[in-house]
Design a protein that fits this description.
With 143 residues, this protein is mostly helical. Helices cover 83% and strands 0% of the residues. The protein has three helices and no strands. The protein has helices at 3-50, 58-96, 111-142. Helix 1 runs antiparallel to helix 2, helix 1 (3-50) runs parallel beside helix 3 and helix 2 packs antiparallel against helix 3.
C-alpha cells in the first residue's frame, strides 16, 4: 500500500471519528434538553394549577410533549441505526480488504442522518409549542 493511500485512510478515519463524536454529543444534548423541557413545562403547568388558575391552550402543551418525546425516541432509534450501519461498513471493508485499490468509502445518505434531522425538527417544533404555551399562560402566574 502506498504512503499517499495510507495517509488518505488515516485522515479519513480521523474525520469520521470526529463526526461520530460530534453527533454523539449532539444526540445526548437533544435528549437531555428535550427531557428537561418536558419536566420544565410540566412544572410550569403545575404552578399555574396550584394558583387555582386555568390553563390556556393546554393542547399546545400536550402536542409539545409529543414532539419532545418523539425527539428522544428518534434519537434512541438513531443509536440503533448507527450500530447497524457500522456493522455493515465493517462487513464491506472486510470483503474488500484484499483489493487495496477498491473504493470502500462510498458516500451515501444513511438512515441515521435522516433520524437525526427528524429528531432536531421535532425538538424545534416542541420548543415553539412550549414557548407559545408559556407566553399564553404567563399572565396566569401574576394573578
Amino acid at each position: 500500500m502506498d504512503v499517499k493511500y495510507q495517509n488518505f485512510i488515516k485522515n479519513r478515519t480521523e474525520a469520521i471519528e470526529n463526526k461520530k463524536a460530534n453527533l454523539s454529543a449532539f444526540d445526548r444534548t437533544l435528549i437531555t434538553v428535550s427531557s428537561s423541557s418536558i419536566a420544565a413545562s410540566g412544572y410550569f403547568a403545575l404552578q399555574i394549577g396550584a394558583l387555582g388558575k386555568s390553563l390556556n391552550s393546554i393542547s399546545l402543551l400536550g402536542i409539545g410533549w409529543v414532539f419532545f418525546a418523539s425527539c428522544v425516541l428518534l434519537n434512541l432509534i438513531s443509536y440503533l441505526s448507527a450500530a447497524t450501519e457500522a456493522d455493515r461498513t465493517v462487513e464491506v471493508l472486510d470483503n474488500r480488504y484484499e483489493d487495496e485499490h477498491s473504493t470502500p468509502f462510498q458516500k451515501s445518505v444513511n438512515k441515521t442522518d435522516a433520524l437525526n434531522y427528524c429528531a432536531l425538527l421535532s425538538f424545534v417544533i416542541g420548543v415553539l409549542l412550549r414557548g407559545t404555551f408559556v407566553i399564553q399562560n404567563l399572565g396566569n402566574l401574576n394573578g
